Amino acid sequence: MRYSTKLIGTAIILATATACGSQQPMATAPAAGGDSAAPSGSVSTSPGSPTPTPGPGKPQFQVPPGSDPVPAGKLDAAALPKQFPREVYTANGGTILVVRAEEGGCQHALGEAVEQTPQHVVVNLSETKAETGKMCTMDLRHPVISVALAAPLGERTVVLKKSPPR
Questions:
Q1: Has residue 127 been placed in a domain?
Q2: CA 39 – CA 141 distance, rounded (Å)
Q3: 154 in any annotated domain
């Protein structure tokens, strides 16, 4: 009896370890507008890509290495709520903005360059709508998201705006 209990226990442990150890990481598809050649919109690149921007899948909370902060004098965040983060960086030679956004629960941060002129770039920040009937946590996160520009930012001002979830 004692021998069979040990044998069954060992079999369960081996089955569990084998099942857990054989899981392969799931490949993620690029996000909509994920082509870095796109003139506007949100962009994410896959891990291992030479562009230092956050990849799809899990939210990124660290600013990519080599990103340069946009000077406070070149940032207009007056349209954002008071508690909203006000961090913007450039990457990839200034053609990508890395913006600290806000999201919570089941929602995910979105960013899109909705206007690009020689004087300024307007970035609209939003969130995805939460699924109805799904329980969500009440946490608040501040991930970084990437927004592609048609041309390097240069001396243009970045204007941040917030819109309702979509």
A1: yes
A2: 28
A3: yes
Q: Please indicate, yes or no, if residue 12 is contained in any of the structural domains.
A: no
88 touches 96 (CB < 8 A): no
The domain in which residue 103 lies consists of: 38-162
Nearest CA-CA partner of 127 in 96, 149, 102, 148:
102
DSSP bridge partners of 146 = 98
The domain total for the chain is 1
* H-run or E-run covering 6: helix 2-21
pLDDT in tens, 6-18: 656 665 665 555 5
Neighbour tally for 4: CB within 10 Å = 8
- What letter does residue 79 receive in the DSSP assignment? T
- Token pair listed for 134: 């799904």
User: In the prediction, which pLDDT does 150 show?
Assistant: 96
Q: Is the pLDDT score of 36 beyond 90? A: no
Does 15 fall in a domain? no
Q: Which pLDDT tens digit goes with each residue over 118-159?
A: 999 999 999 998 778 888 888 899 999 999 999 999 999 999
